[in-house]
């Protein structure tokens, strides 16, 4: 364990200006955050904060080498753990000139990097957003494994955006010892009330802090994201975040307070699995 206090930084980005400007802004906010907070332990970025470079046979190489190396350099340069948002990753090496993948659909993948700039692992989004007149499964394949990763701050459970609506994810991560949850997201307008309620529910039902980092900004297709990235403690209380603008926030999570909350309310121990098995 790194200590009783975990200092977390969320980077809330408008990702409509292209990858170059998005990464430039991300770097600016990260540098500014460290200028005023030298002890940051964890950076969390939003879902799909970088976009596919269609029309190039070097798509996969570009994504894997460029974006992942960017995440690794941030982690190594600032000596900070990074939850790398997510991007579209193809498992094959070739995309045709019209941008069509010749082998299969990509997955929506989040890389987790430690302070040494090493890849600890990755998580591929399990629940695809086939709701609210959107059909993510037309463009993506789903993952099939949980995202739980050991860092020097503890065990971190990761899921992506729409996964939040499925409580089985947070429960399974909690049962595997997650000390906190990280949720990169591109949560659409106008559901900001649901975003807050669901994140709070994940915290309360598992007595576990949650860091949710959302995109901000409107899209050319008329859809858009409302931001409101936040940190919620183990009691379901918002303790930090940012509202409806691009930028960053820095907040501290007290692990000893999480332990206290779990002692006062031992929810996992009080479950009635004997009954659940009869009902499910």
Automatic annotation (TrEMBL):
Pfam families per record: CN_hydrolase
CN hydrolase domain location: 3-255
InterPro entries: C-N_Hydrolase, C-N_Hydrolase_sf
Family: Belongs to the carbon-nitrogen hydrolase superfamily. NIT1/NIT2 family.
Name recorded for this polypeptide: CN hydrolase domain-containing protein
């Amino acid at each position: 364990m790194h200590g009783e206090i975990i200092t977390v930084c969320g980077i809330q980005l408008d990702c409509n200006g292209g990858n170059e400007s998005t990464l430039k802004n991300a770097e600016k906010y990260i540098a500014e955050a460290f200028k005023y907070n030298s002890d940051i332990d964890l950076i969390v970025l939003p879902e799909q904060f970088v976009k596919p470079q269609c029309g190039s046979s070097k798509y996969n190489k570009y994504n894997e080498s460029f974006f992942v190396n960017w995440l690794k350099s941030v982690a190594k340069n600032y000596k900070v753990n990074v939850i790398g948002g997510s991007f579209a990753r193809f498992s094959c090496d070739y995309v045709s000139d019209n941008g069509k993948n010749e082998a299969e659909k990509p997955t929506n993948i989040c890389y987790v990097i430690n302070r040494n700039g090493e890849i600890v692992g990755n998580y591929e989004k399990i629940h695809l957003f086939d709701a609210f007149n959107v059909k993510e499964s037309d463009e993506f394949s789903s993952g099939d494994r949980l995202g739980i990763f050991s860092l020097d701050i503890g065990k971190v459970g990761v899921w992506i955006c729409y996964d939040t609506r499925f409580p089985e994810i947070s429960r399974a991560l909690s049962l595997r010892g997650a000390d906190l949850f990280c949720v990169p997201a591109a949560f659409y307008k106008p559901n900001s009330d649901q975003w807050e309620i669901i994140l709070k529910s994940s915290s309360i039902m598992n007595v576990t802090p949650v860091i949710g980092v959302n995109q901000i900004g409107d899209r050319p297709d008329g859809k858009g994201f409302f931001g409101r990235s936040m940190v919620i403690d183990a009691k379901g209380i918002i303790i930090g975040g940012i509202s409806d603008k691009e930028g960053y926030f820095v907040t501290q999570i007290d692990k000893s307070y999480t332990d206290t909350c779990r002692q006062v309310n031992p929810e996992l121990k009080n479950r009635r699995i004997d009954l659940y098995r009869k009902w499910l």
